[in-house]
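Record 1 of the preview.
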Amino acid sequence: MRLLPRATTCRRLAAWLLVPILVPLVAGPAAAQLQPLTLASDPAFIAKAALGPERGTLVVGTLRGGKPAYGAAYNPEPPSSPRPIEPNSAEQPMFEIGSITKVFTGLLLAQAVERGDLKLDDTVGKLLAGKVEGLSPAVASVTLRQLVTHTGCMPVMADGVAGGPALAEQFRSFDKPMFWAALARIKLTAAAPPCEGSYSNFGMALLGQLLAEHYGTSWGELVRARITEPLGMNDTVITLGDKARAWPRPLPATAASRCSTCRPTRRPARCVPPPPT
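->
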């Protein structure tokens, strides 16, 4: 759950892998020939093709026949060749996955609705009754359906949070009381919902906080208990713990930041775990 969108290589890579593409390879002195890029391609080759001319680092992990393989691409290239990354190594690089966490928030809502715990048309005012004072009638009328579909007329970011170099520091200091205070001050982009779909980090952050409040826990704990742990996504974390060696800089203190390696899960994906018995 992030309050600011962040470009991620994962989304770009997904787009590459959804359609068959051809990329040039140079075979010795001969002219470049075309070779199809598929999920069976060498991970390093996939990474290089996906990164293209953009600056940065991209790591690709594949799992075939129960055997993981990894490859990386760098731009610019490092002065010396990087060492190969071994499966399950503590040296696995970690990436901040940013707005991909919105998928987790949407899945948590889907689970809550399927369990019968919440309804898509439950409103902000209903869920925060007695908890947050000063909500305008328009804000209180926004539904969970509108938040998850970005039709709740919410602004892009919370009041008081702006982009730029100081963004990480703003996230570190933006705690829950500040979030609720921002919600009480918020001005919708229209008189009342619903609105035409318009991307809102604040609206999705609000949805995540509403879910956490409903279950009496944190958003991060919900994600761990209901998504990452059941799916074996043990390298997708908020609190780095012993994985901090693989992360080069401190994380914001908000629940917005979730990190992951490219290590693939060994369990089959199951989007909605069954309700507990």
